[in-house]
Amino acid sequence: MLEYIILGLLMEGNMSGYDMKKTIDLSIGMFYKASFGSLYPALKRLTDKEWVSVAEEEGNSKNKKIYSLLPAGRESFILWLGEPLALSRNEFLVRVFFYDYLDDKTRHLRLTEYMHKLNQEIGRLHAVEQIVAGELAEIPDPQKHYFRVSVLSYGKHFFNMEKEYVEQLIKGAEQNHENKNQ
Amino acid sequence: MLEYIILGLLMEGNMSGYDMKKTIDLSIGMFYKASFGSLYPALKRLTDKEWVSVAEEEGNSKNKKIYSLLPAGRESFILWLGEPLALSRNEFLVRVFFYDYLDDKTRHLRLTEYMHKLNQEIGRLHAVEQIVAGELAEIPDPQKHYFRVSVLSYGKHFFNMEKEYVEQLIKGAEQNHENKNQ
DNA sequence: GCCTGCATGTAACTGGTTACATGATTGC
DNA sequence: GCAATCATGTAACCAGTTACATGCAGGC
Asked: pTM (2 decimals)?
């Protein structure tokens, strides 16, 4: 995934590996960690694939390398960005972080698909909860499984939170669209 | 972490590696994935450390191995369980899943500590949001950064959700306690 | 002259995954 | 007799971390 994050950062403008690390820490750092030990090898791979190009900054006499996005890199990035959103927190958020670069149609499709997945999960969790409640009623000390059972409730909290967020996202994107066409 | 999950499962009773995989998938599977390729080596390590013991089931003629918790394993598990809760979703939830085995006092302490951390994070995010809002007001096309900025809102949603969940957890644990003493 | 921050890189290690190999048991 | 599921295990691989090594630049 790191490779696509790098490509995404380069969509905004050229920068060095060091800058990328800083940008990642300050933006998606909350849910994605990048270390130099993973960043620099990733940049090497991207350069080898010719998805990005390097320019050694000579004027400043620093041994600093500025990376730029090549057309093949841009294509791969947009392709990756348009893939369906999976029910995995990090991937979901990283993609959404770059969703300003995705076309309105695909974006709306992916977000609605994701909503359906969330609803399915919530339904599934609800069913599991019913079963567990029945099982708990038949054992002597149900309170001894309080925390064990509570993680199901966490799941529901979590998916409902994501649902709210995605709903807001869709609404907000529509309003953005309207403003643009004014 | 997998080693501690195995120990936690064995707290409830003896089982085979295969059973562990099934149990994990059905309980914490939502936020923790275990594969046989990681499970079996982990069981090997635990046996070598003498934290668990193995019994080859012979009566059934199956080549099935039943694992049990040894005292050293139980100790290590309880020690691990009582460690402070970090702001990392998986670790947090896996520990809470096993919190029925933790003493009331440590449990209450760890949950309250975690609440403080959540409040700090929410405050920090709020501050970042203010700064970003100011920066957005000064650029020509703020709506072009709609999704990029929205992940901050996700962060707030997320931490507030966890806060609600932990609040509920603390309240529920207290009520459990009262019922026990009736 | 020294500390901090900028800047790049690598080697050893860790904790996993995927895919494969093997074989017993159960139900139809 | 065959498919599904139970059951264990390993080897190749992968993505990442930590710790280290190196050196320049700027401020005090």
From this structure: 0.90
